[in-house]
Amino acid sequence: MSHNSITQQVYNYLKDKRGRAYLLTLAFLLLCLGAFFTATIRADIKTMLPEGEDGALSRDFAMLSESSLANNVFITVHGKGNASRQELIDSANQLSSQLSAPHFNMIDPTSVNPLKVMNFLLDNAPNLLNENDMARVAERTQPDAVKTQLDADFRQLTSPKGMVMKSLIRRDPLGFRALLAPRLKTLNALSEATIENGHVFSKDGTAILLTAKSDIPLTDADGAGQLLAIFNKAADTLPPNIEAEIISGHIHTVANASTIKSDLLTISLVALVALGLLFVLFFRSSQALGVFLVPAVAMCSAMGGLALFSETISAIVIGFGAVLIGISIDFAMHVYFAIARHNGSPGDATRAVSRPILFCGLTSCAAFGALFLSGIPGIRQLALFSICGLTASVLFSLVILPHLCRYAKVVHSQKSNNKSGPRRPRLTLGIWAVVMIVCIWFGSAVSIDPDLRNIGYVPESVQKTEQRFADIWGNMRNRAVIFAQGENLETALANNERVNDALTANFPDIAIASLAPLIPSFKTQSDNSERWKAFWSPETHTSIIDAINTNAQSLGFSSKAFLPFENALNSAPAPITPGALDSASLGLIKDMFLPDTTSGETTMLTFLPDSAEVRAFFSPDKEEELGVHLISNARFKAALETAMNSDIKHFIVVSGLAVIFLAFVFFRDIRRACLALLPAATGIVVIFGVLGATHTDLNLFHITALPLVIGLGADYGIFLVSRETQIFELSTMAAVKVSGLTTLAGFGVLILARHPSLHSLGITVLVGIGAALICALYIMPHLLRRTS
Amino acid sequence: MRILTAIFLLAFPCMVWAAQSATETDKELLLLLQSEAEKIQSISSEFTQEKHLAMFDEILISTGYFAFKKPASLRWEYTVPFKAGFLLKDGEGTEWDDASDTQKAFTLQSNPAMSMVAKQIMAWTTFDIQWLQSRYEIKQISTSPAVLELIPRGEIAKEFLAHLIVRFGPDNASLSSLELHEIDGDFTRIVFTAPRINTALPNETFTSVQ
Fold this sequence. Notes:
CATH architecture of chain B: Clam
Radius of gyration of chain A: 36 Å
Number of helices of chain A: 36
Number of strands of chain B: 11
Number of helices of chain B: 5
Number of domains of chain B: 1
Distance between the termini of chain B: 26 Å
Structural class of chain B: alpha+beta
Largest interface: A-B, 48 and 53 residues
Strand content of chain B: 35-45%
Structural class of chain A: alpha+beta
Largest sheet of chain A: 6 strands, antiparallel
Shape of chain B: globular
CATH class of chain B: Mainly Beta
Order of helices and strands of chain B: HHEEEEEEHHEEHEEE
Strand order of the largest sheet of chain B: 6-5-4-3-2-1-11-10-9-8-7
Radius of gyration of chain B: 17 Å
Oligomer: heterodimer
């Protein structure tokens, strides 16, 4: 029994059971929706990142997310013109007082107590001072050096700074702090900012940085909107010569959400008008409403299917899948036109188009199936989503739709088309050939944009603010992060120290931010401590204390002036642990360099410039040798570019081969199979040509739209070549034209979107489907007529 | 040492901004002091500094010279028992110390420590009431001549400084003395002698070490 007769028999079987069929369909759709709503939806970009070899890139991204400052809110307070430091401080204070939890949990840089920090370093001098440092300690304890240093102490105590230096000088009369303080310099490598009056000032003193943590998730558009509104309200109260600017992921959330919202409003209105126009021109019947149910059916089925096979679902996939699945309406249109133009029963008409529809469904599924080969999990989800939706739309179009539009009649304007045959075939084909050659020429220059940030919408004002922020505070995006991990603290500390030593030796001129100078490994601390003890033998101890007392007396110091120093020499500190940083008021620093991770291993971070030399140094072998892992933005981009390059090749080759194979199986004729693929090939070539000519880089959303163009283009070709074999004699041209125009009206209007991802999709669909449609309607008739 | 001094900036009493009120102080007196200070275009004076520190057996006495000229030129130097100090003009300055026989150029932007010291001295000289109130709670002890007690507001400043006593001259036009009382009982007294107000100060005062 052929499938043609099956469709007819199914129609006849359901003829008396339409109500039950509709109810069953509705129940199925509700089931799909139910399955979907029990699944976990993820709104972040993670699913759109390549997994890399053995999931290495996914792990890198997870590590970076756990360790980055992504959830922090940064505010720059700067003057418009010549604002004084005091005006900046007053404005920063005023702003801070108006920003409160949960939107802003202001981080107080004054929590770093300099006296506690310096005492921490002095107390732990035995653990921290290495062999080279001890040589300098030996120099500083020579009699002449003691005299010079005590004289300097005396002068400092006399100066305006004396009051705050007094306790330190008592604790450290020989100035060992000069050997220890450079260890704090490593923390300054994060930025050239300075702390003044409890505020973080830019290097040139013209701006203050305020930092806050926010309880508002970056995915919460409403919360992010409130956060921004609170900030703007507070910023408006600042003096006219002071300006405050905010940098946060929340701004991007708000910008993207509001842009997509306004885009969808514009696009919906334009698409509605365009679709309404098409309805008036080509349908004018309530029977056609069933056709417009198909995308909804496809969408529900796709969501249900995806929920069945995926534990977590990407919201991005749902959003773009919803757009892509719009092509499912094409199958319904062919069924509708067949019924409307057929004089027999709807079952007969459906039977006539069922074979090309099935093959068109198969080619579209094959095109989208190629997405399964992607290294990006989100793209694979998109493949599953599209195939589920397309399968459901084919089944609905062939089984249920004929009952919904069984009384369909074609309107007059459609009957008049195609009265005139193709004109000037040579000229038309010549123009087409030239266009193809030009597009191939330009298309060969298309490059890939692997920067995921470019997919999001960033208003010009935000771009300028971010640029100003980078100019003032340094560009954190240009920093690489080294992860030193260990199953226990000692291993992590040792790896962290080893990489710091390697960096200092190999890159002496770059700014490296690491905790290693403050917390060496326990082994190093133990070695340092032994060396310190050996130096302070009872004889050395006595002679140095005597030298201090003698010189101190001559300068007028009391006999107990340096008692704290003597007491410290008689005590041995415990090894430094990360917890010690909390009591040294360096908890903020500890959190930044020693983040809590979910991996279960202790992780220590080192920040450094993301240069080509650094990336080259950290080869896989070197990383293994040092027991660390370098993650850099540039490496991410390169990996994404590789994955996208590989994806494009796979998509085009595999979907192309699959579609060619199916076309050959359908027609069993190479020439016809090739002809059927001409619109799809034209669409793809023109897309690359237009992108190349406009110097537009290919992004992730251009790529995801390619299977749509291949699938739809192949559909047009199959239906038109089917005319040649007279498989069905209905008005194929009208169906192809209407379905093409519907696609352009529905999705081509996305080109009006301001959001880059929607715009990319719109460009691809408009150019690709537009070219495929023109090829189908104006090029193929010449080729078909000549060969028939 | 630059890092060290930069870190120690935090110790200055400037951590918390203030409610702009002077509930315990005669506002009229403060305004009067400010209006007198506003008339000052330049001021120069010798000073004597007494350091009463427990870590010394005796009081440390040093003398020096101080000069200020609007808008922001400053010289602060010790002459006895040693020569050291700094000068500042248009945001650029020089530090010197005869012990190391060195002169070191700096800018206020590159040396926030010196910026803060200079700001403190200038605030006292010009009686910048807004700036002072943001950092100190001001109490009036007597009116004529004016004597004020200032208690720091910043938490870290409170770790060092208990309070300040500021005495004005008979005409309330300029500071007569300043006492900085520390938490541990030590204190520093700076007495200004015969201040010269609005006299012509040569440019070299703020540009040349000698």
